Protein 1
Amino acid sequence: MAIATDDPVRRAGLEAIVTGAGHELAASTAEADVVLADTMAIDLDGPAVVTLGVGDVGQSGILPRDACAAQIDAALRAAAAGLSVYGSDPPQRGFRPFPSEDAPLLTPREIEVLAAIGEGLSNKEVARRLGISQHTVKFHCESLFRKLDAKSRADAVHKGLRQRLIEL
């Protein structure tokens, strides 16, 4: 097991977690069977890689950067056994699953407007980006507020992110 990070303080914390869980640390990533990478890209041709905070579909595991010690330990053991581990939904290529019954059904244009609002654009800027009128943007915002039961633009974006309707 090896740790790949540029931050010495973060390395010390991860080493404490890893050794506390009973893993032995290798001298280099080349000698390790699993590498725990902290927000950095690692060559996928080598040992299994579990990343914290970032990742790609080809890695053995991806966990949130704030994963707890038990999650890190379980992910390292699973990766060493040849399994793939994802702290939340794995990154997907292509189609996404159909929204659950709890999630509101938004039109593709409403999703575009919500994502643009999430980037901090004004109605005028959203209209310019999408090639529609400001009146149409306002109409879509009102529809979003109603469907998401939101009280403000920030509330709509928050609910859209939480329900995985948009990503920023």
Note: Helices lie at 8-20, 69-80, 108-118, 123-130, 134-148, 153-162.
Protein 2
Amino acid sequence: MQVTNADRVVYPDDGITKGEVVAYYESVAHRMLPFVAGRALTVERFPKGTGAKGFMQKNAPDHFGEDLIDRHEVPKEGGGTTVYPVVNEQRAIAAFANLGVITFHAPPSTVVDEWHPDWVIWDLDPPSGEFELVRVAAALLREVLESFGISPVLMTSGSNGYHLRAQIVPNVEADTVARIARGTSALAVAAHQEELTLAFRKAERGSRVFVDWLRNAPYSTSVVPWSLRARPGAPVAVPISWDELDEVDPNGVSFADVTRRFDLDPWQKMVTHDFGAVATQVDEALDTAGIELEPFDRFRS
């Protein structure tokens, strides 16, 4: 594709140009497509490069043709709508990069079945730069999830933490999936109170790792695998194996060395879970532990 302003430097500390970013997304589009296709995307744009202020964009660009994207309209609370872009094919990913998009974010469900997710995500958020803490947290959470028959895969966020993800059969309602994510998080925190927390406010976390279960509502989003992040070093969110947990930092794969991972497939043996019975198991475990999940409002917590 023809790239506009291809020589513009978008990572000033690293000398990476817009043309190189677009070329990167062309090279990984086939890897990203399974995680973005059919989903209401939110993109993070930096038209003047990552050295300037960027912005999150939910609405589809008006000038994108229907051959590149579909549009999915969702009512807003209080009136109006958001018209999300929905990617049809690989070339749309590079076209977004040509608009200054650095990072792609996607919800856990598709627009054709928005109330039945096919992914569930746990986002581990440590104190800044505390990678050893978040490594321990990932292993502890994995142990709790596996006790319910959930075998999560692991990815770097390209930022401070790791994401644990599980692919699921889309036969369970979003509220139930979110309850499973929250319930397993609460059980992990109860078992490991010195290492983990559900405190939404950073001031209340201390040196503990926040287990963020809030990525699982229909239009909540998490970073898409293979997305660049707008940080010095141009880190990338990439799938990794559990064997690499002690070796690969959350921001440890960069634009400069990501091609080394192209021949790896750490999620090759990923399990697709049926959550039909898991909700009952998690609820029973919560009752046994004496844990009650009270109504949660992230804007008041």
Note: The longest helix spans residues 18-36.
Protein 3
Amino acid sequence: MIKALISTALLLVSAVPLPAHNDVLTRAHKTTHQIELVTVGEDVSCSATAIGPHALLTASHCELPTDEMEIDGEDAKILALSRDKFDHTIYLTDVSFKDYATFSKDPLEVGDNVFIIGNPGELTDIYRQGYLAGVRHSNPFMLALGVEEPDVFLFDLNGWEGDSGSGIFNEKGELVGVVSVMAIQHLGSEDSKKSSVFMKFMGSWGLKFTEKQIEDAKSF
């Protein structure tokens, strides 16, 4: 499940291969998980990243009203959750994670290399690399009206439904975002059956958790 959004203006740069060391990929892989939530008549399958001994970070639009989930096919209890209001949710679970990711303190710059390990469609643990292609900035008119609308970071990397909630890692293996949207530009009318996808980017809002939310997740 991925939210769709139409983007009209992007700042693009040439792709740069990601010199990701095997150790970086191995550490990141150990922190990535597949989650599934089920309610009557509805189920979602998404990706998530362990950020604490019992904490998983994913996309809020993957949530369903239930206190149970599957993590990598195993039953788990949802004990608590916290959100940052920008499509990011931290689940606190009864499952213990030995390996978990840390957050980058460095600001993202256009051209920065990134990678994800997600679960697109029927596939699991699929590695992809890309780079920050551009930023869709907040609308100043909406901000003037008191509507908080954070920047959307747009990454040139392949993604699909099921990748929602995947951690976006920098070259050091630190989290810089979470897959939440597909930014799509169409040839022709968006509603036309003859319309084809011309350009697609994966997007993430900036992480807006408070320091307390992060510390609570690490110490739970």
Note: The mean pLDDT is 85.
